[in-house]
Amino acid sequence: MLMFQVCSQFSRGVYAILGFYDRKSMNTLTSFCGALHTSFITPSFPIDADVQFVIQMRPGLRGAVLSLLNHYKWEKFVYLYDTDREGVNRFRGVSHSQVLLIRRRGFAILQAIMESAVANNWQVTARSVGNIVDPIEYRRIIEEMDRRQEKRFLIDCEVGRINSILEQVVTSGKNGRGYHYILANLGFSNMSLDRVTSGGANITGFQIINPDSPIVQQFLQRWERLDEREFPEAKNTPLKYTSALTHDAILVIAEAFRYLRRQRVDVSRRGSAGDCLANPAVPWSQGIDIERALKMVQVQGMTGNIQFDTFGRRSNYTIEVYEMKAAGPRKIGYWNEYQKFVYIMDPQVTNESSSVENRTIVVTTIMEAPYVMYKKNHMLMDGNDRYEGYCVDLASEIAKHVGIRYKLSVVPDGKYGARDPETKTWNGMVGELVYG
């Protein structure tokens, strides 16, 4: 069926094909396009192998993921990945042939994790979730890992599967403080994260769309003005990163053909060139000119700077890094090929710190006489009025002099704070400060 659909497009005399592939159709599509010299422009997951006539709009996440793992100093974690490989693996040794197989199939992050686990002596438990249909299976995996004291998860899947996994994280109660989930996907804003962070878990992920970009803002303004009757999703549906990549793919194609027209390059279709049913297949000689023009494009799009290397892979791009907190998502840094991961001070935090009078400060404390104690009739009171003691009076006086609002928050576990040697997470007041 796929072969027929591909051949039907070639028989129509197409100049290039814009579309998606999955892991099953990837080899067929790329082989046909390579044999017939017809470029395939795709927003699908990037291929790490060196292939011709494939223009990959989606940037690779390999380097960004490794940089983030190093930033957080993860040495023991669970890796959930979306492939057709089955079973559980613990990465302790990897053969050269295994790495080559993974690379050809496009599993760049999986390859990078395997190599880094061996080089750095990481303890990585890997589980393929690509064949799971029943969401309850995700819950079983999460609970199994939790019994092993695993509280750090790297989830390398598409948005839909990530949302299903996180739903099971919530229902199983594995979204409390001390849990940390890194989402290896470029659509951080397309995921349902509120319920996960409500329990105190930390979530970190990546975003290819910069919401502050003038190009993005102009597009969204035009999008929202569309007729709701003709485009019912225009008003309330957030912009998907795959849609932004598709938009930019069209931009790249248009720019390439404008270049060919300026250069007066003849790209007319003649005879049976490009006929996939011919034996042997006849490549289209002008296809090389189109591929070259596509790779030469450098333009600003909704996903930032767009340019390609000699194999049609995105280069010189920037990926935003976000954390999801109870107050909402905040940008914590960015990654590019030259600077790697750059941790930044969030502008929102800076702005808020300059006007503390507009915020309610949370003061974490511990019950200990005579510093912080419950009043005898505290059950009849609310807020800070429930407490008394030296620290309570001191906080009240400081607030009066500085002019701030504050809320006393007694740490639930009654501890000052200690670091768990196994999970490397903090409890007590220190945990409150570290995890927010």
Automatic annotation (TrEMBL):
Residues 370-435 form the Ionotropic glutamate receptor L-glutamate and glycine-binding domain. InterPro entries: ANF_lig-bd_rcpt (IPR001828), Glu/Gly-bd (IPR019594), Ionotropic_Glu_rcpt (IPR015683), Peripla_BP_I (IPR028082). It is a multi-pass membrane protein. The keyword Glycoprotein applies. The keyword Transmembrane helix applies. GO terms for molecular function: ligand-gated monoatomic ion channel activity. It is found in: Membrane. SUPFAM superfamilies: Periplasmic binding protein-like I, Periplasmic binding protein-like II. Keywords: Glycoprotein, Ion channel, Ion transport, Ligand-gated ion channel, Membrane, Receptor, Transmembrane, Transmembrane helix, Transport. It comes from the Eukaryota. PANTHER family: IONOTROPIC GLUTAMATE RECEPTOR (PTHR18966). This is Glutamate receptor 3. It comes from Dissostichus eleginoides (Patagonian toothfish). The lineage of its organism: Eukaryota, Metazoa, Chordata, Craniata, Vertebrata.
